[in-house]
Amino acid sequence: MTDVFPSTRTAALERLARFAPKAGADYARLRNYELGAGSHTHVSALSPYLRTRLITEQEVLEATLARHSPAAAQKFVQEVFWRTYWKGWLEQRPAVWAQYRADLARALDHVQTAQGLRTEWQAACLGETGIACFDHWARELVQTGYLHNHARMWFASIWVFTLRLPWVLGADFFLRHLLDGDPASNTLGWRWVAGAQTKGKTYLARADNIEKYTDGRFAPHGQLAQIAVPVDASPDPPPHWTPPPQERDQTQRTGLILHGDDLSPGFMLPADWSPAATIFLDVTDGLSPLAAAPHVAEFNQGAMQDVGARWCDRLGDVTGPCPPDALIGWIDANDLAQIITPYAPVGPVADALRQVEIQRPDVPVIRMLRPYDEAAWPHATRGFFKFRDRIPALLNDLGLTDTKTPAL
Predict the structure, then answer these.
(1) Based on the domain organization, do 150 and 79 belong to the same domain?
(2) Smallest Cα–Cα separation from 239: which of 78, 93, 369?
(3) Contacts of 324 by beta carbon, 8 Å cutoff, 6+ apart
(4) pTM above 0.85, yes or no
């Protein structure tokens, strides 16, 4: 996958520079067209880099609004904030992630005992269902680690309503293969398609829509479900989130944990200070009870190596990438009194850090929160449309409205 998505910040910045001129009217007009692997030219394809924060949302928005007015780039700006919204929504309801993991474990157990389900699940994962568009997207995902957003929606709808497979198995299939597999965006996106996220609202893939936006490459007339009955789902817990304490003692011997939720450490490193030691935490094996695709680990570890090379003179003694079970030994070997780490939203990284706090309560773990997340997440209490109404104010609060020039 490294030839398509090189796991470096340089590659991310080059991709952003190529796309930024098209982030206005071109994106708004053409973003829904899914033209196949190697032809995703109407979307940014920046999501693997945003997923790991080799580049940040703020940087992408700055580059966009330097070329386009907020009105001209509205659709793309909203797309960037969708990922932010999903993270904020799940951060305020971590029980939804825990429920997904529990439901997935039960579904995988059922796969092992129900021959018919196992056969249908395997056919879907292998792209052998006989529905040409679905099979193509299954193979593209496995081969490239990426799918166009419109294809993801169609795929999820066909998985749930045509093939009648549990949505959690589909979400797991994506998370094991996507280079941009974000626990919040992935889990909640699948919930939305299935009707569990916005109660009573589902997404039904339609043959004419697929035919139009694949430019006639696929036309699955007569093959798709005609109705989409929402899946059963328990009520969502009420939103609640309190930003963590940010104070750290720079006189203490401090370790830095860098992880795949945020690989841009500059905001945590004052010019006159460096940690005694740094470890790169790789949670690829924690994405699923099943093995993640090799390209997912390859991308994540390559991104970490890129960060280590670029920041080598600011990180102290560097270890990793390492799995979570290496963290306690690293703390003890470096005689650390405290740890700082970029805030990890709900997902495998946060789960791993929580285990460190349980096993070594004497070593504080200070989770450093970006101003971008701190400003945006509290507004993700309801549906996206309410959040969307806050975007102009968020751009202003983040100092992004003064970067624009007339649209090109």
Answers:
(1) no
(2) 93
(3) 281, 283, 286, 352, 355
(4) yes
- What is the Cβ-side half-sphere exposure of residue 316, based on CA atoms within 13 angstroms? 18
Range of the domain at 209: 94-213
Closest Cα partner for 158 from 185, 130, 182? 130
Cα 38 to Cα 2, 86, 144, 240, 314, distances in angstroms: 14, 27, 10, 42, 37
Strands 254-259 and 277-281: parallel
Do 177 and 67 belong together in one domain?
no
| pLDDT at 7 (0 to 100) | 97
Residue segments in the chain with a per-residue pLDDT below the cut of 50: 1, 403-408
Asked if residue 383 and residue 280 are part of one domain, the reply reads no
Give the CATH number for residue 289: 3.40.50.620
User: Looking at the domain assignment, is residue 127 inside a domain?
Assistant: yes
Residue 223 lies in a domain: no
Tell whether omega for the bond before 321 is within 30 degrees of 0, i.e. cis.
yes
Residue 76 lies in a domain: yes
Q: What is the pLDDT of residue 280?
A: 98
Taking only the tens place, the pLDDT of each residue in 14-57 is: 999 999 999 999 999 999 999 999 999 999 999 999 999 999 99
Residue 299 in any domain: the answer is yes
In what order do the strands lie in the sheet containing 254-259?
Answer: 317-322, 277-281, 254-259, 338-342, 365-368
Cβ contact 66:72 at 8 Å: no
Number of domains in the chain: 3
Mean residue pLDDT of the chain comes to 95
pLDDT at 200 (0 to 100) = 84
Kind of pairing, strands 317-322 and 254-259? unpaired
CB atoms within 10 A of CB 313: 7
